[in-house]
Design a protein that fits this description.
The protein is mainly α. The chain has 8 helices and 2 strands, in the order H-H-H-H-H-H-E-E-H-H. It has helices at residues 3-25, 30-34, 44-64, 72-77, 92-111, 115-119, 136-160, 170-173; strands spanning 121-125, 131-135. The protein has a two-stranded antiparallel sheet with strand order 1-2. Strand 1 (121-125) and strand 2 (131-135) form a beta hairpin. Helix 3 packs antiparallel against helix 7 (136-160).
């Protein structure tokens, strides 16, 4: 499989898993969503907000490096991510709306990828002040891995609440693989 196809598949996987887990989270009360779970991030909502932080700050870096072009209205509708503990959504409705928007951007972004795109350089400064240069492929691998990692933590919390989130295996969630 080539890199552009891989990222298209990962974007679909992340979108579908986010939708699945958000639907499961709708079975939690507001109190449960904000309950201190003594996990890496204190609550279910804190986990979701951190995933959004990662996606938004990485998207900002892709836009500033002219890898992704967003129309002005869409770009202005997205919150600016600056700190690791930023809060973008306090409730499920606002979380779902923003999550769906960001997932759609990543789906659309990867549709335009080719091998030249994957080798372009992204330059940015981390939240700690370090300057980094990565090619788009390395950069996007981190985006999708970051989501998967934190969704793993989230599924542990959902299990502790007694919720069944089903299968998370990529071949089951994206049965069409990289061909779509």
């Amino acid at each position: 499989m080539d890199l552009p196809s891989n990222f298209r598949m990962l974007a679909r996987y992340n979108q579908r898993m986010n939708t699945l887990l958000l639907n499961v989270c709708e079975h939690l009360t507001d109190e449960q969503l904000h309950q201190d779970t003594h996990a890496f991030f204190p609550s279910v909502m804190n986990h979701w907000n951190h995933v959004l932080f990662g996606d938004l700050i990485m998207l900002q870096r892709l836009v500033s490096n002219q890898i992704v072009q967003l129309d002005e209205k869409l770009q202005q509708s997205l919150p600016i991510a600056t700190r690791i503990h930023d809060t973008f959504a306090e409730d499920m409705n606002s979380l779902k709306t923003l999550r769906e928007k960001v997932d759609r951007i990543y789906i659309d972004m990867t549709q335009g990828f080719d091998s030249d795109t994957c080798s372009k350089i992204v330059r940015y400064t981390t939240t700690e002040g370090n300057t980094i240069e990565k090619n788009v492929a390395e950069f996007c691998q981190h985006i999708f891995n970051h989501q998967t990692h934190h969704r793993g933590q989230l599924t542990t919390l959902l299990s502790q609440f007694g919720l069944d989130y089903g299968c998370t295996d990529l071949p089951m969630v994206v049965p069409e693989g990289s061909n779509a």
